[in-house]
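Q: Predict the bound structure with fe (ii) ion.
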Amino acid sequence: MLDWILRQCTLPDGRQGVDIGIAQGRIAVVTPALNESAHQEWDCGGQLVSPPFVDAHFHMDSTLTYGQPRCNQSGTLLEGIALWSELKPSLTQDMIVERAMTYCDWAVAKGLLAIRSHVDVSDPRLLAVEALLHVQKRVSPYLDLQLVAFPQDGVLRSPGALDNLKRALDMGVNVVGGIPHFERTMEQGGESVRVLMELAADRGLMVDMHCDESDDPLSRHIETLAFHTQRLGMQGRVAGSHLTSMHSMDNYYVSKLIPLIREAGVAAIANPLINITLQGRHDSYPKRRGMTRVPELLAAGVDVAFGHDCVLDPWYPLGSGDMLEVAHMGLHVAQMTGQEAMRQCFDAVTRTPAKILGLSAYGLDVGCRADLVLLQARDPIDAIRLRANRLAVWREGRLIAHTPAVITQLNLPDRPPHTGLCLS
Ligand code: FE2
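A: Predicted complex:
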């Protein structure tokens, strides 16, 4: 006897009329017309069933602080960093925990069950590290929270930051972060990449570095990150986040750079909502979009994920934990409107970040963890188009969230009453 059967599912790869059987928290069978019984069943009615959304890039220590102590007037990255520095001394561990737990509730409701969050280690008290390690443990039954030790104020620029970062790793944070473009010089930025990469190699850890988050066409830290990844044999364990300077780089140089990134096995994480709002702020017209070269990186075989980055914090006044909103913006900014390209945008918030985070047993194969999201949509493109309602969310075969379907009743003159609009 199975625990659950989800009947009449459409899967992201296009298979239709599929039944998914779940037993002991795992996917036990995936087949049409499953002739077995279960304790509970859900008729999915031909709608899309996907593995959960995964956010490859977030800041959970600053989330839900928007407006404190004031709003970002210039809309720039640098004013956001300054604002966050003003706010940090007044933060308490309880505040960080409470906001993070609220955000995790939002995430679960949206079918977002794995998040890589950077955590600022610049404050020697490491309050945010302690708080998010606590949250990580509390949410672990329903959400995978991976933490990155992130020296927001620069690992070389900020006194004591390297020691703080090492202490955070000793406490249990297990990804190394960095911010080379915020160091004092380009040379210091490159040096920070070397120091952090060697630290990660010594400890056998993954790396995810904020890299070249600027409009400067001459910023070269992704090249340095790829170089050290290759040198230290860390292929497949390193990600470069943002890479917005690539938007502005000379095309000839990029034609050399992208193959180097591919050869080094470095993944790229773009953050469309944030890149489109923070970058190009010093432009008049035309204004640059600022997002990295997503289609070109994908075409070269680089793993590219989309992250949310910020929700209601010093850098971004909006957001709701909805990775379909992220994919929707990424699709538009990158002009990825072809059928295959739109599907790649869905992958960029599901299976690609799952690979980058190293999530085990993720997916829809037999034996995978029964983490599933039922969407009010026919396929991945429809899901992005509608930012579709998440009808149900399962974690290890347990139903942990469900939301009624959105159905609009229309009563229009000259037409009989009917329902639906173009929602499904
Ligand atoms: Fe970030």
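A: The longest helix spans residues 186-203.
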